Amino acid sequence: MSIHSRALSSTFTRFSSSLFKSASLRQFASQSRAPPQKLPAAPTPKLPSAPTPKLTSAAVHKLPSASIPIVQPVLSKANISTSARVLMTQEEVTESLSKMDISPIYTSDKNGSDEKGEGTQDSPFKTPLQAMRHWGKEPFPTIYVDSKEEGQQFSVISQAQMKKLTKVYQREVNKAASKSKKEAEEAAKREANLEESKSITISEDPSLPAATASKINGLNQYRGQRVKVYGWVHRLRKQGKNMMFVVLRDGTGFLQCLLSDNLCKCYEALLLTTESSVRIFGTLKEVPEGKNAPGGHELDADYWEIVGRSPAGGIDNVLNVESNPDVMYQNRHLWIRGENQSKILKVRHATIKAFRDHYYDRDYVEVTPPTMVQCQVEGGSTLFKFDYFGEEAYLTQSSQLYLETCIPALGNVYCIAQSYRAESSHTRRHLSEFTHIEGELPFITFEQLLEALEDLVCDTAQRIMDSKYGQLVLDIHPEFKVPKRPFKRMDYKDALQYCKDHDIRKEDGTHFEFGDDIPEAPERKMTDMIGEPILLCRFPKAMKAFYMQPDLKDPIVTESVDLLLPNVGEIIGGSMRIYDEQELDAGFKREGISPDNYYWYVDQRKYGTTPHGGYGLGLERYLMWLLNSNNVRETCLYPRTADRCKP
What we know:
Layout: H1 3-33, E1 53-54, H2 57-62, E2 74-75, E3 83-84, H3 90-98, E4 101-102, E5 105-106, H4 128-135, E6 143-146, E7 154-156, H5 159-197, E8 212-213, E9 226-238, E10 243-249, E11 254-260, H6 262-265, H7 267-271, E12 277-286, E13 297-308, H8 325-330, H9 332-335, H10 339-361, E14 365-366, E15 372-373, E16 384-388, E17 391-395, H11 400-410, E18 413-420, E19 433-442, H12 446-466, H13 470-476, E20 488-491, H14 492-501, H15 520-530, E21 534-537, E22 560-565, E23 569-577, H16 581-591, H17 599-606, E24 612-618, H18 619-627
């Protein structure tokens, strides 16, 4: 007999034995309840409709007759002398089993998958245990595993292995049943508690002093007094039946609140979940010595109310520390409620303020240039185009050209605005939309421009660290220190030599040559090896934009600069600007740009031109450096990238 025939015989025996046994018992039970009478012939029992291995009548006929059991007579309890035979002929068994679909299940430790497999020869499961789970009940159909015989792909699982795995499966089933029973008991208990809690009502005691409303960060002055605080439930912990600790968040800080007795037994308390918004009244008390709480105090509540409910489980049902980045960014609106993300956004706020304070103290004037434009700054390939009432227009790549027009009227100027780059970059420091901090300065030299960049970066960092947000920076990046001036100066050609000396190569394994752009990874490797800020200067003219001033000593390079910082690489790009009209016209021609849409820009060279320079700083990259973040997506509110424009 073949392996498959033996398997079918074994399967048939198990199923038919189970079938006839259950049929006889049902018949006996039926006759036991009926009054004594002559029994009619028993109907053929219905077979279970569960999916099982396909067994044709031809296969059944090949089975030995001994494998088809004959059901013995069943006697009526009421009349033992009267009996009726409950029989199925072999033909009836064959006909019934031919209608059953008892296909074997295939597994393969080499090629199978418990997650994606279907249990077929072409798509097997990985483990026999998964085959049992898939079938869902005993008896199991024939299970095949990898064959150990040469030239044979599958063989029937051994009896010993089948017996061992059946025990494992039974333990799983019992464990699941026990868990289900426990959950049902707990659910019943919760339901009973909920019903009981409906009889408990809480209300504000009118004899208590009026509560003073306060934000959490302003509570210190109210210790020992009755206050009222609004916020979201950040954390929730129940301690026995008579105590509940709620950590409240209102955006300004965190507050631990103690709810006791009926305040934690009422219906609303039993349904309270994280991220619910609440209003809590109580007396603000200093925490006992040896105990810890945010701010060193806690609110001993005497009354509270739900303002807005949150689903059971709060955000944890959507996001947790194990969520992949796509899930986090898809739910960024919830992610920012986390402690670390909210700290980053607060530091971002402080950083923007520090930049504005820096500019204000140095007599810069802030302007607000348009972001819908009809000219390019950084090359046409990265422009977002759109139809502007029948004319082609773009989202701005930079506000630099407009800032240049302001310096004859306002002197040193700056702007903090959004810029857009339509480049399909997927690096950790690229965004399609970013916050651009740009400045322009008239009547300066290239060296003065470099000094202005040093001053901008260091002074802003120092202002942040001296503010109340400095501690947040240290919470996220404990090793941060404001860099020392002056920064290291390095020419582009010297950077090429450094890369060659330290075996920093291009992707194809060759060395960088003059005119090559140094991409992010090798640039950052060089920066991290040097370990300090670098002003990388004098890039080749062919690599840079049309408006950059050639170096008077070496006209094949420009008076241009990138500021490189450890862990990030480039965060600032700047240059002296061409201020001669003929040189500017040559730059247009070199880049194949029509000057027609730049008439207003060219006019700056006609009406009192002057040496001037400027720069652009990416706020998100600056924050990467400040907070030691791994990706610019973490340092903005809702990142826009080549593959994401939502939420």
